[in-house]
Amino acid sequence: MKNNLCIENLFGIPKALIGMVHLEALPGTPMGTHSVSAVIKKAIQEAKLLESHGFHGILIENMHDRPYVKSPSAPEITAMIAVVAAKIKDAVNIPIGIQILAGANEEALAAAVASGASFVRVEGFVFAHIADEGLIEGCAGRLLRYRKQIGADEICIFADIKKKHSSHAMTGDVDIAETAHAAEFFLADGVIVTGSSTGKAADLDELKKVAQAVKIPKLIGSGITPHNIESFIRFADAFIVGSYIKKGGLWSNELDSHRMKELVSAFNQCFVTT
To answer: Would you report the helix, strand and coil content of the chain in percent, each value rounded to 5?
Structure first.
């Protein structure tokens, strides 16, 4: 699925809404206070809520595991995420994806294979950057070889470019369009454009440049709301939403049914008129 049909093949619709399931802090991490069974129970509840409100896919992420550790991820984290993802997959009828922080891209692929997930979100696919956790180096060559080795070619790789929460000063002479082109050349299945941090909207002009530069799917990875989705929907193929659909618009809060309904309604209205 290495073409612009990737989104429709995955989600059954040309443009898709992907809701975040931010797992509770996992055992062994600084904020981990819940058992694995408790983490699974809440994750399934959230996944079912997202599905029932009309989201087309789910992305699972260990965002509560802060502060994050650069890859390689601890083996117990990868194992727990694989188990949670498998339980979610059994509980819903929409595709699921996995991201493991920070930059644990091979581990995310392994967990996806083990759980039956359909896609992964990866950091540092092309070009290096300085993240909160330190230097994140390009991984495309190693990651795609690993995907081939484990027989995971059908798992889509969606790659962040000019990733949020990061400094890109050392690649300041490489603009976002060229970064997207490099990701496409290195066989990413889609590129993700974000704002500067969680909940911050992407720059529409940057998205337009990316849309002109590549033919693979373009995803928005932060800051989507019912009020701005109309501006982005012409140029993006999917929207990963975490903050807006939580109470008060804060990623760490509980899901908010009213906000989910608002966002899905706005998406559907835009989709009808495009």
So the answer is: 40, 15, 45
